[in-house]
Amino acid sequence: MGVRVDHAVTSGTFSLDGETFDVDNNVWVVGDDSACVVIDAPHSVPAILEVVGGREVAAIVLTHAHDDHVRVAPELAERTGAPLLLHPAEDVLWKLTHPGVPMPAPLSDGQEITVGGTTLRVLHTPGHSPGAICLYAPSLGCVFTGDTLFQGGPGATGRSYSDRPTIERSIRERLFALPPETVVHTGHGPDTTIGTEAAAL
Ligand SMILES: [Zn+2]
């Protein structure tokens, strides 16, 4: 009955602009006992399927297309039969990671994805990458921010296809508009809250 948020951490690498880094990624699974939505597809299909636990996967939502967030997306889609969803502005990054693999179905700002009676609302928050999105779940009091907002501030904007003023505008106009008590589930590292980060920026 109740919708819950489950979570795993996967370890692997992130590569862009000819450099490679070791990273730990959060993968988030939102759902009830029968169906769920998977947020991001980093590094390891078995690690993600363990969190899914045999439930139907209604959709695999990708916060953006950096390779550490989408590495196993095609394989996970094949294993679960679930559709992949990604903002179309991530086209250039998707092609870097998965050349020749068709773009996932398009996500758009304001789109709502429902699972177990809970709504996840897409917020287009460009800056870390052109088509980065966050997913806001009003009834759960949380937002999944990918690499747009972390505990301690905005996501990185030092590499190709990133823009610092754009991410700052996304965070101020879209994320800081959410209730301050909203829990922030990030793409890397620990949770925070909107109020904590708004006070610090
Ligand atoms: Zn990223």
Structure characterization notes:
This protein has 201 residues and is α/β, with parallel strands linked by helices. It has 6 helices and 14 strands. A hairpin with a 2-residue loop joins β7 (112-115) and β8. The N and C termini lie far apart (38 Å). The model has no long low-confidence stretch (mean pLDDT 97). Bound molecules: zinc ion (ZN). The site of zinc ion (ZN) has 4 residues, from loops.
- Any low-confidence stretches, pLDDT <50, length ≥5? none
User: What's the number of extended β-strand segments?
Assistant: 14
Which geometry do the CA atoms define? globular
Q: How much is the average pLDDT?
A: 97
Strand percent estimate:
35-45%
Our count of helices gives 6
H/E element string? EEEHEHHEHEEEEEEEHEEH
Helical/strand content category: alpha/beta
Largest sheet: number of strands, sense, barrel closure: 6 strands, mixed
Helix content: 10-25%
Distance between the termini: 38 Å
The strands making up the biggest β-sheet line up spatially as 1-2-3-4-5-6
> Measured on Cα atoms, how large is the radius of gyration?
15 Å
Ligand inventory reads: zinc ion
